[in-house]
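Standup notes
- HV: blocked on the assembly model, inputs below
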Amino acid sequence: MKVLVPVKRVIDYNVKVRVKSDGSGVDLANVKMSMNPFDEIACEEAIRLKEAGKADEVIAVSIGVKQAQETLRTALAMGADRAILVIAADDVHQDIEPLAVAKILKAVIDEEQPGLVLAGKQAIDNDMNATGQMLAALLGWSQATFASKLDIDGDHATVTREVDGGLQTIKVKMPAIVTVDLRLNEPRYASLPNIMKAKKKPLDEKTAADYGVDVSPRLEVVKTTEPEARKAGEIVGSVDELVAKLKEAGAV
Amino acid sequence: MIQTTQGAAHDDIRDAVRALCAEFPPEYHRKIDEDRAYPEAFVDALTKGGWMAALIPEEYGGSGLGLTEASVIMEEINRAGGNSGACHGQMYNMNTLVRHGSEEQRQRYLPKIASGELRLQSMGVTEPTTGTDTTKIKTTAVRKGDRYVINGQKVWISRVQHSDLMILLARTTPLADVKKKSEGLSIFLVDVKDAMAKGMDVKPIRNMVNHETNELFFDNLEIPAENLIGEEGQGFKYILTGLNAERALIAAECIGDGYWFIDKVTAYAGERQVFGRPIGQNQGVQFPIAEAFIEVEAANLMRYEACRLFDEGQPCGAQANMAKYLAAKASWEAANACIQFHGGFGFASEYDVERKFRETRLYQVAPISTNLILSYVAEHMLGLPRSF
């Protein structure tokens, strides 16, 4: 079984995000970019499936600017076998919307015929949480989102999902799209020999046009603002005082 | 983390080393310092991740990278709050063995060093009566059949207790019998444990930082003649390979320290409120930090130049020494600003500033004193008369 892992290049989670002066988005010029942390978890899970003998090949795919090849090299250094880069934008500030990403992924999947797609539940940049679901709809495949546990057994997968209020375990038919949550695993960091090997692994370069997908945006960003600054807290002397303060604030 | 001007050329290495270092939080390094212990778990993790074998050619199980990449690894360790001093010996010694060792020696040692079975962490050059005046060393190696007999004394020899192998410099032809004083010196690969049982005495020196360093005494230590590296009498030339690498690597470590201090003090000065505003709003606080940052960035350029020349096999003594000079000075400025603006908290161990402050101070003294670098530059680069 082939496992396909879509990975997105996003602003590094350690970077202090700055809003662009025209409010069209956040400033990404000369800012450290990394693999979306949820995609790292997806990649780790795919590699573990391969190590457990349940997958034969792990293919990482990224859609975006040319620099996303660095993100793919990270996936290859973790242990993916090969990578496909679909160039769909020239400007780092151009975000490819979930529907366009899902359409391109569908085209890649039609070619590659993987038995499983493992994706991050959402990207930490715009938190859309939509690509996996759209992809499942376009393919007509089963989907299991927010996975915190995954077991593959022949033509079925048992997935524990982190839903509001608890955990839900479902059984889905393969092939399937599984989007992963934070607690599924802890991704490994690459060793130096694996970083060196990754430089020699195949990385195919395509364009959105190769798949006939129109990536022009359908959404318009009206405004981007920074979140309100957090106000200073207060240390209270007792539980009673705390309750009184909370009541006063209308919180209880 | 502050944004620096260096390009993204080694981001793959940086990201992976940072991820590894993140598993060893400040508490870990603090505890090691308090206990005056060796960071075994940390060095093991670096070894398992292949980082300590960066300079070993691929055919011997390493990654075949250059000093530039090795220096990035060391820089990131220090930037993450660790201290490369515990393990940089393997990096600066490696090229001495790789470039000057025989094929038989490379086959015999490099794969085991790459796998972590052996550590090559020590270099025995300095003596109590001859620090920088290396050609005057008194330790001798006298050929006796298929062995060399070593007698003499060394000082400030680091990591001996955590190393399996040491590169030792000794005089094989008396100074009086050579045409040039740099001739007649030879280098040997010493099996540390074997030597400790056969005539090498190791006396630890307690010091200001948690840095394992020692006095060594050789009393008729016999080592196999096959452990001679390169040609007999040419050792001084070979040892310079290691010394230049050491300077460039330590420059990178100071740069990592410098960024660590600037990250730390910038965050603190931005948060710490006095008289209703962050202290970082005052130019009196901003300027020393900005100045230190500029100096670290400038030192960084010289460090890359030294590494580039080293990797191309070109002479790099001046650049390696100047890089170390600039970087050690810059990291010290950064350390000073960091401790000053932390106020009393800078002296509290739990802020890690005082530990890093002590650690980075070492590099204006070791492995070569700042004054000697100035003398070198005055004499060799400016052509002024030798001052000593």
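- HV (later): unblocked. Residues 37-51 of chain A form the longest helix (15 residues). The mean pLDDT of chain A is 95.
- Next: hand off to the docking folks.
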